[in-house]
Amino acid sequence: MTNPLSDAVREVFGPLGPLARATPHFKPRAGQTQMAMAVADTLALGGSLVVEAGTGVGKTFAYLVPALLSGERVLLSTATKTLQDQLYARDIPDLLAALGLPLRLAMLKGRGSYVCQQRLAMAQQSATLPDRASVKTLSQIQTWASTTRSGDLAEMPTLDERSPLIPLITSNRDNCLGSTCGYWKECHVNAARKEAMAADVVVINHHLFFADLAMREGGMAELLPSVRVVVFDEAHQLNETGIQFLGQQLGTGQMLDLARDILACGLQLAKGLADWQSLVGDFEKSLRDLRLLIGKHPPNARLRWLDGYPQGINPHDWGEAMLLLTQRAQAVLAALEMVVDAAPEFVRLHERVSDVIGLVAHFSQACPKGSVRWLEVGAQARCMEAPLDIADVMQSRLLQTVVTVPDAQGQAVDLPRSWVFTSATLGDDEQLTWFTEPCGLSQAHVLRVESPFDYASQAWLYVPQDMVSPKDPQHSAAVGELALQVAHTLGGRTLVLTTTSRALRAIGAQLQTALGDSASMEVLVQGESPKRQLMQRFRQAIEPGKKACILVATASFWEGFDVPGEALQAVVIDKLPFPPPNDPLVEARGQRFEEQGRSSFNAYFLPEAAVSLKQGAGRLIRRESDQGALVVCDNRLVSTGYGRRLLANLPPMQRVQTLPALLQALQAITKTGTNAW
Description:
Blueprint: H1 4-12, H2 18-22, H3 30-45, E1 47-53, H4 59-69, E2 74-78, H5 81-99, E3 105-107, H6 117-125, H7 132-145, H8 166-169, H9 188-198, E4 201-205, H10 206-215, H11 218-223, E5 229-232, H12 238-245, E6 248-251, H13 252-269, H14 276-294, E7 301-306, E8 309-310, H15 315-339, H16 344-362, E9 371-377, E10 381-387, H17 391-399, E11 402-406, E12 412-416, E13 418-423, H18 433-436, E14 445-449, H19 455-458, E15 459-462, H20 475-490, E16 494-497, H21 501-515, E17 521-525, H22 531-540, E18 548-553, E19 570-573, H23 584-595, H24 600-617, E20 628-632, H25 636-639, H26 641-648, E21 654-656, H27 659-669
Parallel strand pairs: 1-13, 1-14, 2-4, 2-5, 3-4, 5-13, 15-20, 15-21, 16-18, 16-19, 17-18, 19-20
Antiparallel strand pairs: 6-10, 7-8, 7-9, 9-10, 11-12
Helix pairs in contact: 1-3, 3-4, 4-5, 10-12, 13-14, 13-16, 14-15, 15-16, 20-21, 20-27, 23-24, 24-26
C-alpha cells in the first residue's frame, strides 16, 4: 500500500521538484531522500524513528519536508536557542515559500528569554543594581521594551547573554505572579503561548520541553496533547538536558535571588511592617556561611554526596549549616505571612520560601534509589539530584501516548504519536545504543545515513606519534606548540578543542604569550568574551584587514560551532574525550553497568568518548568545498585496541604520518600560509 505522504516527499526532493525550482544550488542527495522517506513513513504510521544523519546530509529539510506536508500539527525542538532562531527565522519560512504552504508558524522559548514588564519596573526602582554600566544598559532595555512586539531578548544583540541584569528583568517559575500580575494582559510569555496554541508548527528547545514537562507548567501541558508529530533535532543532547529538570536542585545563587526579591518587595510594598533588611541579611549570612563551609574547589567541581552529606565536609558542620539555613528561612516566612495579603508579590515570595525549606529538608534525607546526588561548586554552590537517565519518563509519560484527532469525515480517532529523533552523532554502533538506551528508545526504528562528503580528499588526520602522554604535565605545552605551528602554516584558521578547563587555560595562556602583541595573529580564549562574539570574530578573521585567529575552547564549542569555508581549516584536539571517572554522575552510571554484568568501559566510557570525538571532528568539514586537517594529540588513538574502535567511528580522512607531511598538506590548501616565524 502506497503512502501518499511518501509520494509527495519523493517529488519534493526530485530533480524537477519544488526545492530544485526554488533553490539554484539544490541537487538531489540520496541520503537526504532516504531520511525524508523514513520520516514520512513514521508520520503516517506513528511510533519512533531515530536517525543519525552525517554532516552534509541535509537533515533539517529531510525532516521538515514530510512534517510540513503531513497536515499534522508539528512540534519541533532544538538543542539551543540559536538553532531555534535559525529554524524559525530562516529554514522553515524558506521551505514554506518553496512548497507554497500557508502554515502558521510560532516560536516558544522559556520565561528567561522574554523581558518581564513587572520585573523590569521593579529593576528600575531598585537601588542595588550590579554596577554603573548596568544603569545605562537598563535604560537601553527600557527603550527597546517600549516598542518590542515579542519581548524576546534575542532582538537585542548588544545585550550580553551573561549580563547580571537578565535575571532582574525576566521571570521564572518561582517569581512569576501569574494572573495577579498587573502586566498579565501584556505579558510576552502569555502572548507567545497563545500564538503557539494557534500555530500549525511550533519551534521550541529541549530545555523548555523538559522544564515544562517536569513542572507541568503552561507550555507543554497545553501544547503537547494537541500535537501528533514531535521532532527533536540535535537529539544527542536530550538525555543530559532532561535529567537537569527531572531531579531536584537547590543553589545558593537561586536563594540569593530570592533574598534580593524579598528585600526589594519588602522595602517597596511593606516598608515598616517588618525588619526586612535584618531578616534578609541573616538569611544571606547563612548562605555565605554555607558557601564558606564548602571551601575552595576547582571551577565547576562536583563533590560526591555520601551518607547524607557532601564529600570532604564535616557532617556535623554540614548539618548545623543546613539547620541554620532552615531557621533563617522560617523567620523570613513568618514575616511574609504577616503581609501576604498586602500584594500578590508576597504570595509568590511566600511560596518560594516554603519551597526552599522543603528542598533543604529533602537534601537532608537519603537520596532516592535510581538517582544520584552531588554538590556542584563554582562561584555559587548547588545541591543537585538527578535520575541517571530519562528512559523511565520517556517510556511512561511520552512514547506510548496517542492523540485524538479528527479523520476525513470529522470523526474523532485515536492515533499513535509520531516521534523523530535526529542528530549527526548518536552512537558508535549500528543500533545507536549510546542514545537509544538512556532515552528509552530501544524499540525505535533506527536509521544511519552517511555523510556525502568525500573526506578522503577533503581532510587529513594526523596523530603525532612522538607526543607525550596526556598524563604528562608537559602535554598541554606540547599541544600548544603543535597548534602554533599549524596556525602559522594556515595563517590562523585553527580551532583548539580541550577536554578540561585546566588545559583550556594552560594552552590559551601559552599561545597568548607566544604571540604577544603580534600584528598578524590573535588568540581567542573561551570565557574571555561571550560565545557569540568569539564565533563572529573567528569567522571574520579571513576578511581583509582582520587579524588571523586561533580559538581555544572547550565544552560547548565541541558542537554547534559551525564555520564553513576557509575560516576554519584545522581542528586540534588535546586528548581523547573520555568522561571524567571521578564525576559523581559518571561514576554512578558506570557502577550501574557493572551491576548489570557489563563492562562500564566498553558499554559507557568508550561510546561517550566516541560520540564526543566525532562531534569535535565534525567542526572541520561543513560543506563539500571545505578542506582541512584534524589533529588528535593522543597516541592512544592509534596504539590501543579501543583506539581503533574510536578511529573507525571518525570520518574516513586521509592519514598523514609526520608533522612535515601535515604542514605541507596545509600549505597546499591556503594562499595565506607562510610557515614563517
